[in-house]
Design a protein that fits this description.
With 63 residues, this protein is α+β, with helices and mostly antiparallel strands. 37% of the residues lie in helices and 24% in strands. It has one domain: Alpha-Beta Plaits. The protein is built from 2 helices and 4 strands. The chain has a 4-stranded antiparallel β-sheet with strand order 2-3-1-4, with helices on one face.
Length: 63
């Protein structure tokens, strides 16, 4: 699933988002220029909670 992370603006943000997802057992592909992250292997609630804990608000992107 793809999530919008509007306050992800730099390389440090990208690394923080990747680390937050990996800490809860998922795999993240971060698209900094689009401010989106694609996550595999985790339920939506886990992704949103992990990113919130890292300081990032996230919402699912409708496909």
């Amino acid at each position: 699933m793809i999530y919008s992370v509007p306050n992800m603006t730099c390389g440090h943000c990208k690394a923080s988002v990747e680390a937050a997802i990996e800490e809860v057992g998922g795999k993240a592909d971060v698209y900094l220029e689009d401010r989106e992250v694609e996550v595999e292997g985790l339920p939506e609630s886990t992704v949103i909670s992990a990113l919130k804990g890292a300081g990032y608000e996230a919402t699912p992107v409708e496909e």
